[in-house]
Model the fold of this input.
Amino acid sequence: MNIPIGIDSRVIMHLSLTLEDGTVAESTFGEEPLSFTMGDGTLVRGLELGLYGLRPGDTQRLKLYPEQAFGLRDPDKIHSMPRADFDDEMVLEPGVIIGFETPDGEEIPGMVSSVGDESVEVDFNHPLAGHTVIFNVEIIDVIPAEQGESD
Done:
């Protein structure tokens, strides 16, 4: 059956996200394909919208602006934290990603953007926020929602 991707479809596909300068941010080509259910939060909404209607064997190449993909950089997501809040053994230098726990117990990544004597600046924006990305996909299989639920 050659079924198009629809709401709640289970999708198996290869994908790559490339920045405009050619830097590959993520790719499953040559590795295990990605398997997910449409709407489950695996992909940001802008990426998902480009998949509806595609069928097994289809390929798609989309250029997505920041607003359509990972959002614009938000200066409110950059926080200065006391250096004393970090373990003395921890390597603190720009580019290091650290997991932080929110008050409700969720873990979120933050990237160290600068280190001073008294404070550490941490950026909680998505690493691809503010970037235009090229989204390439190859659809391997589509399982309709009603079929996927009985697995």
